[in-house]
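Review form for a predicted model. The reviewer records the input and the model, then writes brief findings.
Reviewer: anonymous (R2)
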Amino acid sequence: MKTKLAILSLAIAVPSCVFAQDSIKVSNNGEYPNTFSSGSANVERFTQSSKRFNDWSISFGAGVPLMQYADLTSLKFGKGAGKSLVGYSAYLSIDKAISHTFGLKLQYDRGETRQGAFYTRDAAPANASVNGQYGGRTQYDAVSILGDLNLTNLFRRVDNKSPYRWALHGYAGVGTIGYRAYLKDETGQRLVTEVKPIRDGLSFFGQGGAGLKYKINRRLDIEGRVMYIVTTDDTFDGGDSVVNMRKDNNSDNFINATLGLSVKLGKHESHLMWHDPLQEIYYRTDVLESKINDVEVCKAGDADNDGVCDDWDRQLDTPAGARVDGSGVALDVDMDGVIDLYDKCVTVPGPVENNGCPVESAQTPNSGSVTEAETKLDGIEFELNSDKILSNNTPILNNAVGYINSSNGSYTVVGATDTRGSEAYNQKLSQNRANNVKDYLIKNGVESTKLDAQGNGKNDLKYPECDPASKCPEWKNKANRRVYFKAK
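Model under review:
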């Protein structure tokens, strides 16, 4: 797990390699000659042969343009509104993905908008001289450059590791447009406006919108788009000066809804616009981890087999089974010169000749110092609501075994608790603690006739001020949860 986290950090630290489509590879005795050094890794030079994703595609589609903001509109609503007319459109584009979130399109559009209006003298301006039904028709050709923003790749959840097939794209761009606008009235159809970009100068337009793509397979995507086209020309709808007088500031912009296909070009399995950088990072960690596992970690070996390479092992003869620190030195927690493997009192310093345990000297009861019985028969403490003897108490009990066997007296093993819980519960718990210690001593060589067990419950406190227990720190309450020895 630590290796994977470290490799993941390395992969995140070099995100430019993800977007530039380079490949990171661990150096392996010159196996990859066409590389340059970058720290501890080698990075392939960017060439066409080193590309890992397809980034070119061709898109085409057809749809319906609707002019709803002009003097002559495509759809009519309400009483006496007139006839609704629907045109057609088609597009073809060459697409280049720059990164997994952005690309460019060179697009050609061709189509025809159709508009109609019911125009009566009652609704006409005062200077209008015609009466009847009007209609418009506009044939257009346009070339534009569009920016393609992959919103799904830009905002998708980074913890989503599963492949995805839907993507929302945003488009915006500018270009030039040429058109022929016709007007139909009671006299027939006539050409009102014709704009040719090369002959009449550049006629600029802009368009923007959104598309929803679905990935059919590695080669094909299907996409539905809705685009808003800004023509910047009040005669685009086919209206003449009379028609255009009906309303002020009308826009001849229109909406183009299309359905199309994208064909992804190239030899690779994945297209850059469908690429997930997080999947790339996980892929790289797996590759790097497998390569690291194949490399011999300790070139100089590990003579004492302690998991620390001899190159930086400060203790090359560590005994088998000993725990070591990062430099290969056997641990000695109490720093008494006896390593933990051989130390019988790991947390208490003691001389080597006593296996790391302290040596207790005999004292006379009247000397004013601690007596031998008090040092050899130390009490032990218990966890809350437990009668289990803790492993760090076994040295104390082993000392008690030796002392009791060497003495001529007999002893009572006394159990006690803190003040939490009921009287009956604590009485039973203290008796269990005393019984467990008594059983331990007997199993380790003490004659059963020298011992009996007694539980005092919560009425035998080492710190009487801890009633209730909330009045004292926890170390005092733990000292009350004890077993001690009393001579008969």
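Findings: The chain has a mean pLDDT of 78.
Further findings: The chain has eight helices and 16 strands.
Recommendation: see findings above.
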